[in-house]
Amino acid sequence: MSFPHLLEPLDLGFTQLKNRVLMGSMHTGLEEEKGGFEKLAAFYKERAQGGVGLIVTGGISPNLRGRLAPNACQLSFPWQIKKHTIVTKAVHEAGGKICMQLLHAGRYGYHPFTLAPSKIKSPITPFTPSAMSSRQVANTIKDYGASAALAKKAGYDGVEVMGSEGYLINQFISSRTNKRTDKWGGAFENRAQFPVQIVKQIREKVGTDFIIVFRLSMLDLVDNGSTWNEVVQLAKSLEAAGVTIINTGIGWHEARVPTISTSVPRGAFAWVTEKLKQEMSIPLIATNRINTPEIAESIIASGQADMVSMARPFLADPDFVNKAEANTPELINTCIGCNQACLDHTFAMKRATCLVNPRACYETELNFTPAKINKRIAVMGAGPAGMAFAIYAASRGHQVVLFEAKSEVGGQFNLARKIPGKEEFDETIRYFLNQIKLHDIELRLNTKLDASVASAEKFDEIVMSAGVIPRPLDLPGFDNPKVVDYQKVLTGEVQVGKKVALIGAGGIGFDMAHYLCEAESTTLNPDKWLKQWGIDKDYQTAGGLTEPVAEDKNREVFLLQRKTTKMGKGLGKTTGWIHRSVLKQHHVAMRTGVSYQKFDEQGLHIIVDNKPEVLEVDNVVLCAGQVSNTELVEEMKATGIPVHLIGGVDVAAELDAKRAIRQGAELAIAL
């Protein structure tokens, strides 16, 4: 399959983009590290070499009080230009173009000096902002222009003005957060003047031969958000003010609707960009959950947008565009939208990277150079850890034989991909399989590695990545066939009834509850998904919200945990709330502080708050964690061949593909 629309150049008049792909803005954490701009330059350089048409950096504040955090970046003074030049020079040498994103956090700032249109605290940050004075509003507009001028001096090809996601500009636009009574508040025409004046100021400072992208919130997904007429009116005013391209923004960060997680259908919001495109004459960019060249091509070919924005897909694979151009999309390491190593890291103030590509943001540190001595290496277990090691080790010149006792590769990913909303895990298995072929790795399915084989074939190293097995619970009646582990349910070995109790409320328990409750994955049915989350595709309400449509109850499920802490406390910071919301939609009964007694013909006997209770369930599913599959470890060590443990066989904590794949990569470099 070729991708002619995706790869077609875009003429902006004063400059031309080589294709219709924008690498969207994302904060990496390198911006604040010592020597971080050198690392950032290497990161962006690889993406420019990979063929992306235009790169947008993470958010840079135009002034001190607009910073996202106390140590976050701003560009306000000439002496700050030097470090930015490192980045722009690297991108230009690689044949790319790059814009700097201008982002004022407003009330989303994580520091006590935040400013906003009005003194209204955000529900997702700890500090109450000060209301901006008229002078501060005027000075902030000037600061945007001054920062853009400095960006031009630093070699950037343009700027992106962050006017969405609930940051300062969005806060001015919306009556939800703008309660001012001066000329910057009240009627929409007044509230819209703030972004319009910012764009005019920037255009005045940078001239005509400079790209201005405006990230416009086209769908706020919060109460009292913008109406559709207001979105159109503002877009036209921004075009008249000098914007080159309008990028799509979807949802405020405080919105209770998922917008980028893996459970969001691919291209789920392209319809809103298409709706605005009919009103505009400048190029528009579609965004959110576009992660393959096929979906990107279809969006542009169908006229929904002129470009597509992809951020995390370029963490997963810097060569995304080159592979599409070479007509080898099967070789793309696809972003699965998990957020575990990117956004979850960002919110924890750690460097972002990627679960499926641990080298992302570590381009100067994690490199697979040719091995000095080529070795013959046996790998036991073709789960994420084993496959990752095999591929990286083979890329260094080692001869790798990959043993898998089952009939297919994937390990725990084969279970994860059966959960509604986690269908993207298929893509990682597809990528690994193609890399195994590409690197001539010998794959032996239905074959268990044992000590005799290891010795007879004279392996130099043995890598054990045979994963985990479910943790059993030794309680009265738990040997009953109606008490089963999660793996047997997901593989279809066991069918459960209409009333089910799940023991263990970690990631496995939440996934199992979702699996049992959702007969058909709404991720694969975009219109049904929009209704499930109350998104008004007709846009009849401000913010684009409507009443969610609940799915019929498929099963009665009890999710139980021993701990008294909040249910799902250990889930990902950016996705945990989504998992909890889904289970509430399906009316899952969630109980904490549960003591398990026994299982008999009556059901599961438990004690909660010192009160005995019997749950009359058809089945009990054990989701109480797992233990390392250490079978054969000592036997392998007895061969005298060096043995290395990675993945679940090393640490059997909550299933962690991020750690497993990274371990595989780091061991491949070490051997």
From TrEMBL:
Keyword Membrane: no
Its EC number(s): 1.3.1.34
Cofactor section: FMN; [4Fe-4S] cluster
Domain FAD/NAD(P)-binding: 376-652
Domain NADH:flavin oxidoreductase/NADH oxidase N-terminal positions: 6-329
Keyword set, alphabetical order: Flavoprotein, FMN, Iron, Iron-sulfur, Metal-binding, Oxidoreductase
CDD domains: DCR_FMN
Coiled coil: none
Transmembrane segments: none
Alphabetized GO MF terms: 2,4-dienoyl-CoA reductase (NADPH) activity
Xref: Pfam families: Oxidored_FMN, Pyr_redox_2
Top-level class of the enzyme under EC nomenclature: oxidoreductase
Source domain of life: Bacteria
Family the UniProt entry places it in: In the N-terminal section; belongs to the NADH:flavin oxidoreductase/NADH oxidase family.
Protein name: NADPH-dependent 2,4-dienoyl-CoA reductase
Annotated source species: Shewanella youngdeokensis
